[in-house]
Every structure is written in C-alpha cells, then in structure tokens.
Amino acid sequence: MLPQVSAPLVEFRSSDGPVITGLGVPYYDGTPNTELRVKIDDELWAVERVMPGAFNSSLRSHKIDEVSYYNHGPGVLANGFLLGRRSSGTLLLREDDAGVHYRVKPPKGDKTDDLLELIQRRDVNGSSIRMDVQDEEYRQEDDTIIREVKSATLEEVGPVDEAAYAVTTAEVTSRVEKLDRTLLPGAEELLIREINRRALLARLSSAT
Average pLDDT in the 36-45 region? Predict the structure, then answer.
C-alpha cells in the first residue's frame, strides 16, 4: 500500500551537502490532521489511522533494507528516482511519539538539484511511504468506517509532488521546523476498494 505522509524539508550543510528530512509516518493523535478521511459515497466516509508504535517492530528488526525515493520507486510514478538506503547509511530513520522521521542524503546530480529547488519553491510539498500492513482493524462508527493500522513494515519513504493532507508543507530551511502528512494519489482508491469489500461482507453477514 502507498499512503502518502509528511512534509519534506531540506537542510543545507557546508560539510555534508544538502539533507532532506521529514516525518514519514505520523501516528494518530486524536486530531484530524493525523488521519486520512475519504468520502466513499453520499452517506459513507472512510478514515485511516496509523496507530502509535505501528512501525516499532519493523524499525527494530532491521529485516527490511528501507529505501528513500523521490516520487516512489520504479513502477509507481514515472519520474521517481533513488535518494538513499538505510543499509548504506544515507537514509536514517527515527521513531518518537509523533511517528517515524526520516533523514536522507541525496546523491549529487542535476535531478537532485532540481528536487531541492522544487522543495525550496514549495512545488514539492509532501512526503510519502510504502508500507506492508500486518495487523489492522476495521470498524464502523455511525456513517464512518475506520481502518486502524496497528502493525506494519516500512519499506520506503521520501518526498512526493502531490499531498492529500491539508497540513502538508515543504520548504528549504537550516532546521527541521514543520513535519506533516500526505497520501499518494491512487492510495485512496485502494483504501476505498478494501473498505467497500469489507462493508459488503458485513452487510451480507448481517442479512443472513
């Protein structure tokens, strides 16, 4: 699944060069800015929440060699390219109460220069992840179906062009000042398809 998340920033360091940082996975804290709300039809909404600690086991196990891409990896968006990898030390991941933060040192080159300028101009204003969900829970509250991601493996994180969350921003700065969340175009359809399937099964079960 490809839920987009947070806002990338750029730190310029004279010794190491530019570093892109962001909150790749914000954990749900009870506020609308940390959940994804999708309208399925005129009467039904769907909400996705990544619960605190969902990526704790994944980050501690080191079984996955997480990567960072701009606009995701091959086969997702045509203009994506690799920025860094955890095993090489060019991608660092850190978890706290807010979620999972990333810091990636991109390679030198024209594509990276273009990306840094786009973030500086706020044309690129979001970050995103690729995750594999191991434990999730669905329930319905009034007119809303809620999906809670309780355990997942983080596979990829990085900046993206489009942001689905209203709080998402991006800028060039010398410090990390803003961290937010976005959703990849197309992930909404995946979520809606799964929720519709489960809602239909629930209705069939209640009718029998």
Answer: 72
